[in-house]
Amino acid sequence: MILNIDSSLSTFKRVEFQEGLNVLLSDRTPGASDKQTRNSAGKTSLVEIIHFLLGADCDKNSLFRTDELIEHTFTAEFSFWGVKFHIERGGVQPSRIFLLKGFDGRDDLPIKTDKESERAFISNENWKVMLGHVLFGLPADLSGTIYEKSFTPSFRSMISYFVRRQNSGAFISPERQAEKQQKWDWQENLSYLFGLDWRISLEFQKVKSREKALEELKKAAKGGAFGKIIGTVAQLRSEMTVAEKKASQRKAQLDNFQVHESYDDLAKRAARAKTEMQTLSRETIGLRETLNHLEAALESEAPPDPAMLEEVYASAGIELPGVALKRLDEVRGFYESVVQNRGLHLTREVSQVTERIEMVNARAGVLDAEREGILKTLESHGALDDFLALQKELAELEAEAASLKERFKAAELLEGEKTQLDIDRGSLHRRLQQDYQERKAVLDEAILLVTEAISELYDDREGRFEISATDRGPEFKISIEGDRGGGISNIEIFCLDLALFSLNSERKQGPGFLFHDSHLFDGVDERQIARAMLLGTQATEGKELQYIVTMNSDIFDRLPLSETIVRDDVVLETRLSDDTQSGGLFGFRFD
Question: Which DSSP category does 470 fall into?
Fold first, then answer.
């Protein structure tokens, strides 16, 4: 539960919460014009403060980094399943969560001390890890677990179903708590919250990533460089077979080519010389790359800046008192010795590589001269022209056949991967179906919570909650019969949130509160709003749980509330208004 929220800002309106239904109202100032609204009274800002105190990101565009608020801090007292925490966070140091109360004896937390204020704090990242453990049963240490990897359930994603943010587009559809939330994110986090096997959704995401990579490769294969490399298996098999046959025929023709024995011997010698020259050429390339690397390494070798060493050791002397350090001169001499030895070693290697290059070039020159002489001898005889032409043609045919073979292998891999992806997706689909069969009781409870809430909210409409095992992963769909008017889509969100809240509270999971901004009830009939408040009250009363709602006072006053809800008892003492100067939550108007 949330016990209270406050700020170092003197004009901030402290908010105290209670068990059960909490209604934060925004009043219309007497005599206010029709143009004055309560959209900036601070109802939505309260949601942002809660998220800020529960580890939300605080980038340069954050509300808490504005000129008016950056120098101020915000505090909250939470009671999570019997344990109270009092924390503070501000825009100047948003990465630090200051621990005011409730953290004694928690040796599992990496608590540090701020040097200036001498106050204890933990990083915001560790705060989120702790909350994920306390509220949702995630590991207390994510290191070495599956949860430290991508595409896994997270505290921040799950908590956002219990306090949706209008600024993130949380009121578009039930399954998404943010407009830009990826499908894998809501599939895995909702599966986790409903008590299903979220790891199956993770495996679906892995298959999806492989499919995406495959599609990108196929697109590239249709044009550009890849278009000449990869084709279909059937097409390439045919082309490869024909090319290999042509090369085989030409090789046989060349093997049977008759020339004078001495010419044949000369031709073989010329061919060997060419082959050896090509080998030497490739070796030269590698040697020159090695030489460039060694010369660059030799040029970069230098002892560390003495001034830098002095600064390091001076610092070490302050931060590590009592530690015996070698004298600075000895350390400088050591580094200079290392650099000098390293330089000598590199110089020797450069010399060796240079000598090898010279030897290779000399040998290549000898071979080139030998081959040139042989070719001049053979050029005077007509058989040589035919022989060399056949050799060239054979080389081209063999190169084409080799290229087609490699393309064929690549095409086989692509088509094989597509087949394997279909198999993997089908296997995951069966695993998901089996998981739903094994967790029938969990699914039944979730479905009944939603459908019963719909029946309580509408006398004339039927509704259902479908949790489907598809070949694309789990699907969560709430549908209420009838037209889409009257804020039905918002009521569907309410029903899903209430089900998640009830299920997790039964398991002693979740934050112990459900918070609905007034935006959720935009366009909703007042009768349904009243019934929603009753359902929220029934889900929390006597259980140390909270249902928190923000609303304009004139709408609240018109609601046909149940007799079991006493208006004065559920309305919070703190009230906001449309007074442009001091009526809002922060007590002033932002520029």
Answer: E
- Distance between CA atoms of residues 529 and 516, nearest Å: 11
Q: Count the alpha carbons within 13 Å of 354 in the hemisphere toward its beta carbon.
A: 9
Write the single-letter amino acid at 227: G
Burial call 537-546: b when 16+ CB within 10 Å, e when fewer? bbbbeeeebb
H or E element at residue 539: helix 526-540
Integer Cα distance of 209 and 425 in angstroms: 12
314 located within any domain: yes
Candidates 477, 475, 474; CA nearest to 464 is: 477
Position 390 in a domain: no
Altogether, the residues listed in the chain come to a count of 591
What's the pLDDT at 322? 45
**Are the CB atoms for 536 and 185 separated by under 8 Å?**
no
pTM of the model: 0.69
Please state whether beta strands 15-16 and 473-480 pair in parallel, antiparallel, or not at all (unpaired): unpaired
The string of pLDDT tens digits covering residues 173-224 is 999 999 999 999 999 999 999 999 999 999 999 988 888 877 776 665 555 4
Contacts of 89 (CB under 8 A, 6+ apart): 52, 53, 73, 74, 96, 97, 98, 124
Give the neighbor-by-neighbor strand order of the sheet with 2-7: 15-16, 2-7, 73-80, 83-90, 96-101, 120-123, 112-113
The verdict on 460 and 373 lying in the same domain is no
Q: Which domain holds residue 499?
A: 2-196+439-577
Shared domain for 27 and 150, answered yes or no, is: yes
556 and 487 share a domain? yes
Three-class DSSP labels, 155-181: HHHHHCCCECCHHHCCCCCCCCCCCCC
Number of domains in the chain: 2
Work out the number of other CB atoms within 10 angstroms of the CB of residue 533: 23
Residue 481 amino acid letter:
E
Q: Which tokens sit at 85?
A: 């925490």
59 and 175, same domain (yes or no): yes
Q: Please name which of 157, 154, 181 lies closest in space to residue 169, comparing C-alpha atoms.
A: 181
Whether residue 279 sits in one domain with residue 173 = no
Cβ neighbours for 589, distance < 8 A, ≥ 6 positions apart: 40, 580, 581
Tens digit of each residue's pLDDT (9 = 90 or more) over 314-357: 665 555 444 444 555 666 676 677 667 766 777 887 788 788 88
> What is the distance between the alpha carbons of residues 1 and 512, in angstroms, rounded to a whole number?
5
Considering the domain architecture, whether residues 158 and 11 belong to the same structural domain is answered as: yes
- Is residue 444 situated within a structural domain? yes
- Output phi, psi for 97, to 5 deg: -110, 110
Tokens of 570: 């559920």
For the chain, the average pLDDT equals 84
Whether residues 444 and 335 fall in one domain: no
CATH number at residue 125: 3.40.50.300
For residue 33, is it within any domain? Answer: yes
